[in-house]
């Protein structure tokens, strides 16, 4: 439990930094573009979240789990699942990018009620592979339970990408804000790739080559869960905003988006801690009794923390 609290503290600090950058970005967007810009930014972020969720589906929990399970046997033992993940990412990219380019004007009309913003959709789908690269790096680090490195690189990428985004908003107004939201995950992916180039696990032979159907099927099982999440939560928010836009207009929708950010941020402290600590921890345990015991101990800690934070926000 000490390790869970330690991970929660570290990921909490990372979440606070991301929260600070998020609030800074939201404040700059509100200053330069007003509530309408906030609403448009929310639509783009939900679209990016959904597409990133799809492209990152084979690069997330599955890679974390199998890396955690086999890391003691060396990187070569993890390689089949890493290769399978790359193959799935390439397959999804080959489908998602052409479809996104072809349907860009329709998606822009659905999101913004204006097809001239189709360029935002095009940019988003073209940079999707860089987002997957960042997720793969994060998953391998998380699977090895290198929490300090995980949090440190998360802070670095958040600060660098946030600085670039603020500059883009200041220079190009609403167009800069939308472009920044479209490429933020790709910028983080590039930072993660550069930061890990010298790591021993980032060798081409571990990531490219033949793998068996069992590994592809195992990663595919995790994809279904991730894609379901990617197609429900962000799209539901897009639908809610679309209804608000029709009923009360862009300005009121932007104000709703600002309030939504508050609840999204404080829950992020807990969800990031669980996502970082829990899956590798459960994967390393053997036996049902050990897993049930870990779940019970974690529940006794997490639920009071969530309740206290919710009360504090209220």
Automatic annotation (TrEMBL):
Show the GO cellular component annotation of the record.
Answer: plasma membrane
Query: Is Membrane included in the keywords of this UniProt record?
Result: yes
Provide the alphabetized UniProt keywords: Cell membrane, Membrane, Transmembrane, Transmembrane helix
Q: What is this protein called?
A: Polysaccharide biosynthesis family protein
- Which InterPro entries does this chain map to? Poly_Biosynth_Transport (IPR050833), WzxE (IPR044550)
- Transmembrane ranges, per UniProt, are 50-68, 88-113, 119-141, 153-172, 178-197, 218-239
Any GO BP annotation: enterobacterial common antigen biosynthetic process
Q: Which CDD domains match?
A: MATE_like_10
């Amino acid at each position: 439990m000490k390790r869970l609290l330690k991970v929660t503290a570290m990921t909490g600090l990372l979440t606070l930094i991301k929260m600070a950058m998020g609030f800074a970005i939201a404040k700059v967007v509100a200053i330069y573009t007003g509530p309408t810009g906030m609403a448009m930014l929310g639509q783009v972020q939900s679209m990016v979240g959904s597409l990133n969720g799809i492209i990152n589906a084979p690069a997330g929990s599955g890679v974390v789990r199998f890396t955690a399970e086999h890391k003691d046997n060396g990187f070569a033992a993890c390689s089949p699942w890493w290769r399978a993940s790359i193959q799935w990412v390439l397959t999804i990219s080959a489908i998602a990018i052409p479809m996104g380019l072809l349907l860009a004007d329709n998606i822009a009309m659905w999101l913004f009620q204006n097809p001239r913003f189709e360029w935002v959709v095009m940019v988003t789908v073209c940079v999707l592979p860089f987002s997957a690269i960042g997720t793969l790096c994060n998953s391998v680090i998380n699977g090895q339970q290198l929490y300090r490195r995980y949090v440190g690189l998360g802070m670095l990428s958040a600060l660098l990408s946030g600085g670039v985004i603020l500059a883009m908003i200041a220079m190009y107004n609403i167009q800069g804000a939308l472009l920044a939201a479209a490429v933020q995950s790709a910028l983080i992916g590039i930072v993660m790739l550069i930061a890990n180039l010298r790591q021993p696990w980032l060798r081409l032979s571990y990531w490219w080559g033949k793998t068996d159907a069992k590994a592809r099927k195992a990663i595919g099982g995790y994809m279904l869960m991730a894609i379901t999440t990617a197609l429900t939560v962000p799209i539901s928010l897009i639908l809610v905003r679309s209804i608000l836009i029709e009923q009360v207009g862009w300005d009121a929708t932007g104000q709703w988006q600002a309030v939504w950010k508050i609840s999204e941020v404080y829950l992020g402290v807990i969800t990031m801690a669980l996502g970082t600590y829990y899956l590798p921890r459960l994967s390393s345990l053997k036996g049902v009794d050990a897993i049930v015991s870990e779940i019970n101990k974690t529940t006794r800690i997490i639920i009071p923390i969530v309740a206290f934070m919710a009360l504090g926000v209220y």
